[in-house]
Amino acid sequence: MAGCLPPIKPVTPPPSAFATDTSAPGDAGGRGLLKKSLAWGLGLGLLAWLLSRTPFGQVAEAFSRPGWETWGLTLAGLLISYALRAARLQVVLNLEGHRQAPHRWLGVRTDALRVILMHNAAINLLPMRAGELTFPLLASRELGMPVTRAVACLLWMRVQDVVILVVLGLLIWPGLPVWWRLAGFGAMYLAWLTLGRVSRTWFARQKDQVPAGKLAGLMIKLRQALLEPEHHHPLAWLATLANWSLKLAAGACLLSAVSTAPWLTSWAGALGGELAAIVPLQGPAGFGTYEAGVWAGMAAHLPAQSSALSHAVSAALALHVCFLLCAVLAGALASVLSWANKPRVRQGTPSARHPD
User: Fold this and answer.
1) Which of 254, 248, 328, 320 is nearest to 287 (CA)?
2) Other CB atoms closer than 10 Å to residue 160's CB: what's the count?
3) What is the pLDDT of residue 199?
4) Exposed end of the chain (fewer CB within 10 Å): N or C?
5) How far apart are CA 164 and CA 189, in angstroms?
6) d(Cα 198, Cα 151) in Å, to the nearest integer?
7) 108 near 87, Cβ under 8 Å?
8) What is the rounded distance in angstroms from the CA atom of residue 94 to the CA atom of residue 100?
9) What is the pLDDT of residues 135-165, one digit of tens each?
């Protein structure tokens, strides 16, 4: 994919490209409150509707149905996926060329792992994907990265996530005809070429102008993300693929154990839940939208009156609570370790930093 990009050098965007919104504080606060209310209303409304179709007894039984080995596999898969995300982060940010690693855990830098765990907890807890905003702050505080570069890194990692999820869906989605899979890959390739052409055309028009506004800022960040050499490192793609493959497989194991649905059907449900998490309007802790995505993914392959589908919502709740508790506990532990390491980090002398 990197070969489709124009051989142009990254440029430092003017400050106006990242200017903050100049609208009145009252208007911004009102819009923020409206968006938050819509997100909470959507999430809680979806959850209430789904639970109305599921007896409470099934929900309570969902947590006791899987054996300890199933819970262990799910937790192990999730924890290893955290390490894989940290491995990707240290590649795309080129942390080895930025500063010396304070400690390592199975080859993964602990400072990168702390950032991933705290960021993941924020994403899981805050509505409307607001937790994403914590990443540039954490990368700046914990890793000494410029905020603009951290924003470009975050944007690129989300592009990678979507690409890999779509690729896995096209490869493994049960019952999908071969020509659909090929057409999907062809559409992805055309979309990538179109993105490169549109970005080249837009920047050619803006060459002699000073870009300003939110669109210009987003385009510049996207361009930075696409041109960053480390972002296209094969290890970054491999870590992303391994992370999502492991997380979806672990989620499918728990969904299958609770709902008694076939593993591939449960895998489709796990993928549906992750794709639903991309929707900007997210309720508190993602409740409602995640369960709806899991149910939709499983419903695509199960008869409407099947026993497995009737347990899909309770299985999704069990999986969601498992993921949420792991994220919060791991994030809390990372925060404590970050606080404990603060004096040592301040006294250290990092190596040469990347230019902003």
Assistant:
1) 320
2) 22
3) 72
4) C
5) 13
6) 21
7) yes
8) 11
9) 999 999 888 888 888 888 998 899 899 999 9
Q: SS3 for the chain, per residue?
A: CHHHCCCCCCCCCCHHHHCCCCCCHHHHHHHHHHHHHHHHHHHHHHHHHHHHCCCHHHHHHHCCCCCHHHHHHHHHHHHHHHHHHHHHHHHHCCHHHCCCCCCEECCEEHHHHHHHHHHHHHHHHCHHHHHHHHHHHHHHHHHCCCHHHHHHHHHHHHHHHHHHHHHHHHHHCCCCCHHHHHHHHHHHHHHHHHHHHHHHHHHHHCCCCCCCCHHHHHHHHHHHHHHCHHHHCHHHHHHHHHHHHHHHHHHHHHHHHHHCCCHHHHHHHHHHHHHHCCCCCCCHHHCCHHHHHHHHHHHCCCCCCCHHHHCHHHHHHHHHHHHHHHHHHHHHHHHHHHHHHHHHHHHCCCCCCCCC
Record the tokens describing residue 70, joined without a space.
Answer: 């199933």
pTM: 0.79
What CA–CA distance (Å, rounded) separates 300 from 259?
15
pLDDT tens digits along 175-219: 999 999 999 999 999 998 887 787 777 766 766 565 556 666 666
Model pLDDT, residue 36:
60
Query: Are 89 and 345 within 8 A, CB to CB?
Result: no
Query: What is the Rg, in whole angstroms, of the alpha carbon atoms belonging to the chain?
Result: 22
Task: Work out the number of other CB atoms within 10 angstroms of the CB of residue 313.
Answer: 25
Q: What does the alpha-carbon distance between residue 144 and residue 131 come to, in Å, rounded to a whole number?
A: 20
What is the Cα 120 distance to its own chain's centre? 8
CA terminus-to-terminus distance, the chain: 25
